[in-house]
Fold this sequence. Notes:
The structure is a homodimer.
Chain A (H helix, E strand, L loop, with lengths): L5 E5 L5 H14 L14 H13 L4 E7 L2 E9 L9 E8 L8 H14 L6 E7 L3 H9 L3 E11 L5 E10 L6
Parallel strand pairs in A: 4-5
Antiparallel strand pairs in A: 1-2, 2-3, 3-4, 5-7, 6-7
Organism (chains A, B): Streptococcus merionis
Pfam families (chains A, B): Acetyltransf_1
GO molecular function, one term (chains A, B): diamine N-acetyltransferase activity
Amino acid sequence: MARQEIVFKEAELDDAAGLADFLEQVVTESDFLSQDDDSPNMTVEETACFIQNHLESPNQVCLLAKCDARVIGVLNIEAASHVRVNHIGDIFIAVAKEFWGHGLGQILLEEAIDWAEHSGIIRRLELTVQARNERAVHIYEKFGFEIEGTKRRGAKTKNGDFLDVYLMAKLIENVTE
Amino acid sequence: MARQEIVFKEAELDDAAGLADFLEQVVTESDFLSQDDDSPNMTVEETACFIQNHLESPNQVCLLAKCDARVIGVLNIEAASHVRVNHIGDIFIAVAKEFWGHGLGQILLEEAIDWAEHSGIIRRLELTVQARNERAVHIYEKFGFEIEGTKRRGAKTKNGDFLDVYLMAKLIENVTE
């Protein structure tokens, strides 16, 4: 990967096709996502709508890692619009398998935390992660996420075995500069 | 309330208008819901679509408490369709303020647990509840829900004060009769 340039950027409308392709691919590559290959994929139009919605929301962002024109990683922050919970950002993160082990997820996470601290609205970032995915749990802890609880039967494998899932969160203090 | 007959039933398409009205009312009455009166309300058409979707899903149900023709309580179980997590039912429960304190929520909860045990698919029921809502927490515990974690800043008041929110869950064993 040494000579390939990776660009990190906010998803724009013309990333819709690339992001839809990436999401379709990534669910087949990892057993750690709550989505799986039975999940209905978003069409390109739905993905464009999703990106537009994020561009217009002060408390949502979709960050991409791209190699040339190809989307190879995504970190999405989803939040509700109503005041009671609009300070809570829910993180989804995925990296294409051939790029695992190069720290792309960590760069995306760093960007996302920085975005949240400057959002003026997000005061809590949360995510869920399978307890068996120790590598991911350690990375999240390194970035200040704490395990708040364990969801028993929070997911199941293709064989129907139940898995513990951690609820992790990091409190965000807004930075004004 | 002694002479009023309360009926508990699964929501059908012709409950759409009544359910939409009820949901619009209930968000103004309680500070304990994650929705609030800033939340966009569902139109009657959207509510009908929501009910239809639940009627067709093996892992979702919308239960109503009705007094005459009026909807006065709802317990909704929402679940995802993909296999990794289609055994998890997320509970939303609300009762009209003038009927608080008569145990309607408990009857709805009992019905919902019975429904889940006979669903053949739900193996975990989960819900979130503000930690300060002690009465509700005790009722959930009475029905076998356990606190799995505390979400710091899991909600905020209208004044912007952050609240702890419990993640509670009950494991379900399917009953075949």
